[in-house]
Structure formats: C-alpha cells, structure tokens
Design brief:
CATH architecture of the domain at 78-195 and 236-264 and 303-318: 3-Layer(aba) Sandwich
Number of strands: 14
Helix content: 40-55%
Number of helices: 13
Bound molecules: 2-amino-3-ketobutyric acid
Shape: globular
Structural class: alpha/beta
Strand order of the largest sheet: 3-2-1-4-5-7-11
Radius of gyration: 20 Å
Order of helices and strands: EHEHEHEHHEHEHEEHEEHEEHEHEHH
CATH class of the domain at 78-195 and 236-264 and 303-318: Alpha Beta
Strand content: 15-25%
CATH topology of the domain at 78-195 and 236-264 and 303-318: Rossmann fold
CATH superfamily of the domain at 78-195 and 236-264 and 303-318: NAD(P)-binding Rossmann-like Domain
Length: 339
Amino acid sequence: MAKSVVLITGSNGEIGHSLIERLHADGRYAVVSLDLTPAPSALREWCTASYTGNIMDRYLMDQIAAHHEIAAVFHLAALLSTRGERDPELAHQVNVEGTLNLLRVAQQQSARLGRPVKFLFPSSIAVYGLPDTGTKRKVGRIKEEEWNVPVTMYGCNKLYCEHLGRYFTHFHRQLGALANVARLDFRSLRFPGLISADTVPTGGTSDFGPEMLHSAAKGESYACFVGEDAQIPFMAMPDAVDALVQLLDADRDRLSTTVYNVGAFSVSASQIAARVKAAFPGAEISYAPDPVRSKIVDSWPEDVDDSAARRDWGWNPKYGVERAFDEYLVPSIRKRYAT
Ligand code: AKB
C-alpha cells in the first residue's frame, strides 16, 4: 500500500529537521517538505519531494496540493517571538495569513478526499501573559484556558490561529452549501522552549537556554539576555517530536480539545547555567538582561499543566531535566562540536 503523505512547512527549521529524520526512520509516512530556503541535501534525501517557496504563495500551495494526496500537514513555519517584535506586521502576515492559507489548502484537500486531513500546529507558551513575576510565582503550573492574554505579536498570532483551527474543524462554512463536506482535523500543542542538540534556534525568546549550552560547547563566552531567576518550561527536542507524532496518531474520539499544553521540565537561567558549567567546566556565562526580552520571558508561565494531554493521548515525556542534559544534550553536543 502507498504510504500516506505528510506535508511539512518550515521544514528546514529546528523542529522540521528532527521531525523529518524521525518520520524517515519510522518509514510510515512519505514526507513532502516546504521551506523558504532550499532543503539541505541530507533532508532532501529523506523526502519524497521538497519545495522551496513562501507559504503565502497561493499558487504554489495549490500546486503542491494538486500533486500530492496529503493526509496530514505539520505547519511549522513561523516567525518566533523576538523576531516578531522587530517586525510585527510581517509576523502577522507569516503567522496568521500563512496559516490561513495552509488551513484553506487542508480544508480543500479534506473535501476532495472526503475525509479529514489532520493539521498539526505547534503553538506555544507565548499564548500566555502573566502580568508580573509575583503572579507568575503564585500561579505556578497553568491550564490551557488560563491567562490567555499574550504580550507578543507571536503569542497573539498563535492564540488566534488555535481558534482558526478549531473553527475550521468544527464550524467552517456552517451556513453554506458546503456545510456537509469533510472538515479538517486540527490538533495543536503548546510547546515550551525547545532545546535541541543538533540545531540552535533563531528569533525566539526562549533561546537563552539553547544558546548558553551551545556556546559553552563551542568554547565561546555567553552573555545571557535574561536574569538568573528567569524561569520557564523547556523540553528536549526528541520529546517535542514524539509529542507531534503521538498527537498525529491519537484516536480522534479520545481528543477532548483541539489545543493541548505539553510540559517536560521547568528551569531558571541559573539552573541551566549550573548544568552547563558542570558539563563544560571552562564555560564563561554572564548576565546582561535585555529589559524587553526579560519582560517577555517573565510573562510566560513557570510551568504548564499538561494533564489533558496525559489523559487524552498518553503524553509522558521521556526527558526530565537530568536525563535531558546527561543522556541527550551534553553527550550529543560534545560529539557534535568535537567533529
Ligand atoms: C520563542 O521563544 O518564541 C519560541 C516559543 C517559546 O514559542 N521558542
């Protein structure tokens, strides 16, 4: 039987890299990739087809949909929170209009195939907005419906796109002649800051974690752009990829919502620094907090309540903080920069 095709947008990014590697290793899906820049040859080899282009290009998106019978979309392309504050209108165009274009294509594909195309959407802890660090400490782990008052364009975009996905899944064209055609099946994860051993993120505000670690491994000094007490949840990349694949495979009848928190561990900048220094004793880490980026991190929760994901589809991260550093990040990064 022919393998089902999944379309991955933003495929050259951090999550895309790891997800394509994982799907290739699983062998269950054929991957079609799309990114603004050409796919590196290693990734291209693992894909059935690789496209270079913009997610806002309607013609290109329609061409891709016409050439492939897409069973699922992983829509990863986005401008992250720091980049988004530098150019909020561009962030809105890419993050909202781009997502709407993908939802449109997935909806048309669902109607054409007569079954729901799954639409996997990485959302973020950036959808939350705590007013101050006192409140942040007091509320601790927060649930999906709490504090949905983001302070960044990126957070606003993610929150709105979650609603768009829910709308497309349950209400799209509810009054029109097409009310009875198959609707898409939107499934979203609110990721914490992600840390990968293979790539360093760009344009995010949770980047201080991975930047600290990769700088130390390269023997470079690092001035952290948030203070030592700044604390948010993080997750090791293999768990993030597991979460996406698990949610893709989850039985739809068991999903009680379209948006799930997923947590793994919560650490402060100084706790990350301590682990980095233990692994790389010569590491030079200082603090030069940027007031705006610090405020953004302070508005994000200390941790998330992910009990709905655990209950509905068995979310259970493999990497707590100790295992993430000792068994995944440090050994893999050491190997990576040694070669
Ligand atoms: C960012 O920092 O913008 C992202 C996120 C937390 O979603 N990594």
